[in-house]
Amino acid sequence: RYEQQGSISTDVSIGFLEEAWGEHRDSTGRRWKRIIDVDACPIATEKINEALPAARKEFRTSTPALKHLLLRHTTRNGVTSDAQQWVTEDVPGLGPFLFRAGGFFQNNSSILPTFVEHVVEHA
User: Fold this and answer.
1) Using CA atoms in the order 23, 26, 30, 31, what is the torsion angle rounded to 10 degrees?
2) Which DSSP string corresponds to 7-32?
């Protein structure tokens, strides 16, 4: 269980702790972490981890080279890598929420009910 003051706790263990950024910087001075390829991501959904091998292959072989890789999973649409695709997620207590796959929305759907409850309670 991960808890931080002012945050919402969850019983879902994601096996992930934030690390220090270090001193890797690009030509503009921005700090970056080195990219590490993984077979599966412990904080991703099972469906995203299943789609990862094919997406990784497409990313590595695309011409022109892709600059980033997006895998968005929603309960209604499955997994997409198209940032412009409209997708729908069912938000407990509120209904369907339509957004672009590349837009910001709660990525960890396992905490979505608790997250929405917290926002509605404090709104």
Assistant:
1) -30
2) S--BS----------TT-B-TTS-B-
pTM for this structure?
Answer: 0.64
Cα 114–104–4 angle (5° rounding)? 45
30-38 long-range contacts, CB within 8 A, separation 24+:
none
Q: Is residue 70 a contact partner of residue 101, using CB atoms and an 8 Å limit?
A: yes
Average pLDDT, rounded, for the chain: 77
Q: What is the pLDDT of residues 84-121, one digit of tens each?
A: 999 998 887 778 888 899 887 766 676 777 877 888 88
- Bond from prior residue into 64 cis (ω within 30 degrees of 0): yes
